Amino acid sequence: MISPSGPKNMKKLHKELKRFSAIEAGLAITGRPAVGIGLAVVFLGVIWAFTAMTFGQTPSHTFLVLAAVVGGYMALNIGANDVANNMGPAVGSRAMTMAGALLIAAICEASGAILAGGDVVETISKGIIDPGAMSDNVKFVQVMIAALLASALWVNLATYLNAPVSTTHAIVGGVMGAGALAAGVGAVHWSTVGAIVASWVISPMMGGVIAAALLLFVKKMILFQDDKIAAARRWIPVLIGLMAGAFGMYLLTKGLARVYAPPSWLVGLAGVGSFLGVWALMRPIVRRQTVEMENRRKAVSGLFTHALIFSSALLSFAHGANDVANAVGPLAAIANALAGGGVEDQAVVLPLWILVVGAAGISAGLFLFGPKLIRTVGEKITKLDRARAFCVSLSAAVTVLAASGLGLPVSSTHIAVGAVFGVGFLREALANHQELSHLVHPPRLDAIDNPQRVEKLERRRLVRRQHITTIGAAWVVTVPLSAALSAGLYLLLTAFLE
């Protein structure tokens, strides 16, 4: 029996997400560049003061304090750049206000980072450079500091250029560049680097194709039907159930990997159970929501609103759990090395203070600098409504699961942006096809005599091409530029400390 209060609570949640006047006012202030930079400096100052007071009596405190500040700076940039991929579609489709999106993302990112973060710390610190080639702890610490600072500087520049980039690629490039200079080119695990390069193509292509296929299904089976209400009652519970199943599997395999590593049968069972449970739950809810609904595309598209909000929250939780390692992975490795652990030892215990630095930095970067990239992903590439944004979010979860199952290397950033482009290009193709078909069928046969009209329709663009160039170039140069910058910083650091 479904509680009648369910839909009311959902409506109440949707209304509450719009009532953040205090946050909106704060955004108007922090959105000013000077204020945002000033608050970021204060945040880094707090990290410096905390680590200096906590570890100030240890012989290696200078390295640890420096690493903590640089790690906090990297976390700020992750929040400013990476989180836009999760919240951009929801904000661009007007499912959430900017303030609501920032609040939800900050809570979910911090929760994911603290509760389930740090699973890939060993990958960042040992999977790129052979640890046996750097037996000197001091050299290892210098490599990690240079890598952190280089990747943070590049992500900062990319955010300024309105280019969402993979922070994982940035830190991988940073470790590779400084590590190769410190231990030799032969110490680089080139198979890992090759997998990263492959993901430049695999990730956006998979995300775009899956998102376009989902949107084509939604349009054909729901939005293009004469009776859109009946079609929505039939298919929207299925689609939301599919999203629940995908996210159930996604959170078990990616978001909660540090807490619990389930067997594959349990992951599959969780996916099927989530799908069936949410499908059964949504059937009466959707039916109730459509009782007096107009038989129009915009009205039907609004049925995806709550699913889109929850998907954005879950994506943020999983992102916080995984990508916090890009900031705290090198920091944890540095802390482990300075505490007397060998370079080849695993940093099994991740100190809570390090996770807090990462979580707080991501949340602060999101509030101070995140809106710019959120608008780029959600509004400036192509126009998103609730149905299109839903397809982008669902594509992100499905693509990561599919790629993991196939053993393919993917980037969540590239997937999400590729999905937005995929949705936009599908819209463009359908719109041009529809317009041209109108020209060659009655009652507009006279329009065939107007070749300029035909040419104009053929050139119709619903995706802003300039973003393809900017974002694509940023993706391509992320690893080599981070590597070169890290190598230069390593040379400066070693020269300064000699």
Task: Please count the helical segments.
Answer: 20
Classify the secondary structure makeup into a structural class. Answer: mainly alpha
Elements, N to C (H/E): HHHHHHHHHHHHHHHHHHHH
Principal-axes geometry comes out as elongated
Sheet of most strands:
none
| Distance N to C terminus | 73 Å
Rg, nearest Å: 24 Å
Total strand count, please?
0
Strand content: under 5%
Total domain modules = 1
* Low-confidence runs of at least 5 consecutive residues: 438-448
What is the helix fraction of residues, given as a range? over 70%
The chain-level mean pLDDT equals 81
Subcellular location: Membrane
Transmembrane segments: 21-50, 62-84, 96-118, 138-158, 170-190, 196-218, 230-252, 264-282, 303-321, 348-369, 389-408, 468-493
Keywords: Membrane, Phosphate transport, Transmembrane, Transmembrane helix, Transport
Family: Belongs to the inorganic phosphate transporter (PiT) (TC 2.A.20) family.
Task: Explain the overall architecture.
The chain is an all-alpha fold. The protein has one domain. It has 20 helices and no strands. The chain has helices at 5-16, 21-30, 33-55, 61-81, 84-92, 98-116, 121-126, 137-160, 167-183, 190-223, 228-255, 264-289, 297-301, 305-323, 325-338, 352-380, 386-406, 412-439, 451-458, 465-497.
